[in-house]
Write a structure and sequence with these properties.
The chain has helices at 5-14, 32-55, 74-86, 124-148; strands at 20-28, 60-62, 66-69, 92-97, 110-113. It has one domain (22-138). It has four helices and five strands. Strands 1, 2, 3, 4 and 5 form a five-stranded parallel beta sheet that branches. The longest helix is centred in the last third of the chain and has 25 residues, at 124-148. It is α/β, with parallel strands linked by helices and 149 residues long.
Length: 149
């Protein structure tokens, strides 16, 4: 499920089955030398989270990404996001980011950090293969949480 009106109608009708929330956390670099790397990381993370949502449609809700800059206080941002998202009452919340700084931030949910993989020069088949490999990295984290409930 995506955060759009059509999928929200389905979510409201079937929310007892849609128990997992995925929250992409995107760092927007404003320093010119880092902008290309930042945009590449964004492309990777959005491609991956969209792929995950497609694979688990009917079980997962994918939020639009939360975007921040290098001067954002991640602890404060994490507290605000975690607190607000708790009101949605999902059993499982996964925050996914390519920014390693999130690994040290306490969140109400699991933070998954992945190193960014530049996809911009890959053909569609290679891109798909890379994303499938990344899914294999995060899938055990999902299944572990799902098996706990």
């Amino acid at each position: 499920m995506n955060w759009n009106a059509k999928d929200m109608d389905t979510y409201i009708q079937q929310k007892e089955y849609i128990d997992t929330l995925i929250v992409p956390l995107l760092k927007l670099e404003t320093i010119p030398e880092r902008m290309k790397s930042s945009s590449s990381s964004t492309e990777f993370l959005m491609y991956l989270t969209t792929f995950i949502e497609t694979q688990f449609k009917g079980r997962i809700m994918l939020l639009p990404p939360f975007t921040y800059t290098q001067s954002t206080d991640l602890v404060e941002m994490g507290n605000v996001i975690s607190g607000d998202l708790q009101k949605m009452q999902f059993k499982h919340v996964f925050f996914i980011s390519t920014d390693p700084a999130w690994k040290t931030v306490e969140m109400n949910g699991e933070v998954i950090w992945l190193p960014p993989i530049p996809l911009e020069n890959m053909d569609k088949q290679l891109k798909q293969s890379i994303i499938e490999d990344q899914l294999k990295q995060v899938l055990p984290k999902f299944t572990l949480k799902w098996s706990e409930s």
